[in-house]
Design goal:
Elements (H helix, E strand, L loop, with lengths): L2 H26 L6 E2 L5 E2 L1 H19 L4 E5 L3 E5 L4 E9 L1 H6 L5 E7 L7 E8 L5 E5 L4 E3 L2 E3 L9 E5 L3 H13 L3 E3 L4 H9 L5 E4 L3 E2 H13 L3 E4 L14 E3 L1 E4 L2 H12 L12
Parallel strand pairs: 3-5, 11-12, 11-13
Antiparallel strand pairs: 1-2, 3-4, 5-6, 6-7, 7-8, 8-9, 9-10, 13-17, 14-16, 15-17
Helix pairs in contact: 1-2, 4-7, 5-6
């Protein structure tokens, strides 16, 4: 199966999610957790509904002869035959927003040719509230709603978005960067943060808590294909990261290399005067 065919599967998943999300949230309210998913976060009925749609589509791909491993926030790891390809899925990225009625949550899907991020082949993110669809195929650019997107070449960090899952410890680490921004935003869906960064909505995105690969892999490919840069918080490459359920690295993502160096200088000046390093 080609990367384009995999993208078609991801888009069909996104369509089913978009078509059914309102009725699903209205039906169960999204307020009563079912337990904890494999990723460690609470699983709500909407998470289970979304994951069932993903599994159904992947079972269809497997029946057509595809062999791969699914790594999903909710169920964990499931093998569909013996193959090297990996599908990373976050059925509802931003489920706290979804269950609270905040219209900023997504489904994030990525295809890799092996178990490290340097083999990312397809990335797909859909804003389930607004309907914006983002995708990228390695070497073929990034798209929003069918139109090619590119990040800005202008240096600057005017708008910074961030994620602070543990505000008491995260915000002090990010504060030097946030203090230099003209505006800051904390939206609550890493996949969408990276996708909108790729489309030019802001200049920098940062997390201080280590993220899991299924949180950011699809957004990472979309951003890189749009011309952006993403590393760990000290500039280290993410290409070597082995995907799984574990948390991997805090993130720093920027619209271009010059902005990335600027953001990293701001952060590292406050960490024992370390010099920034960027692995591209």
């Amino acid at each position: 199966m080609t990367n384009e065919q995999w993208l078609d599967i991801f888009k069909e998943i996104g369509k089913k999610m978009r078509d059914g999300i309102t009725a699903t949230l209205n039906k169960e309210g999204g307020t009563v957790p079912l337990g904890k998913g494999a990723g460690g976060d609470k699983t709500f009925p909407v998470d289970k509904w979304a994951e069932d749609i993903i599994i159904s589509a992947l079972e269809g791909a497997h029946r057509e002869g595809e062999a791969f491993t699914l790594i999903s926030e909710e169920l964990g790891v499931r093998k569909f035959g013996q193959g090297n390809k990996i599908v990373l899925a976050d059925p509802i990225d931003g489920s706290n927003n979804a269950k609270s009625g905040i219209p900023f949550f997504s489904t994030s899907l990525a295809l890799l040719n092996s178990d490290t991020l340097d083999t990312l082949a397809v990335g797909y993110v859909i804003n389930l509230a607004a309907g914006d669809e983002f995708w990228a195929l390695r070497g073929n650019g990034a798209y929003k709603n069918g139109e090619r997107i590119r990040t800005s070449a202008v240096e600057g960090i005017a708008i910074v978005s961030y994620e602070a899952s543990s505000p008491k410890s995260d915000l002090p680490r990010l504060l030097p960067l946030l203090a230099q921004a003209k505006r800051t935003r904390c939206f609550g869906s890493t996949a969408l943060d990276l996708a909108y960064l790729a489309s030019g909505a802001m200049g920098v995105f940062a997390t201080a808590t280590a993220s899991r690969a299924f949180d950011y892999a699809a957004g990472m490919l979309i951003l890189v294909e749009a011309g952006g840069v993403i590393t760990d918080l000290t500039g280290g490459s993410l290409d070597h990261v082995v995907v799984g359920l574990e948390r991997t690295a805090p993130l720093l993502a920027s619209k271009n290399k010059a902005t990335h160096v600027m953001a990293m200088n701001i952060l590292l000046r406050n960490q024992d005067n370390k010099s920034p390093r960027i692995d591209m």
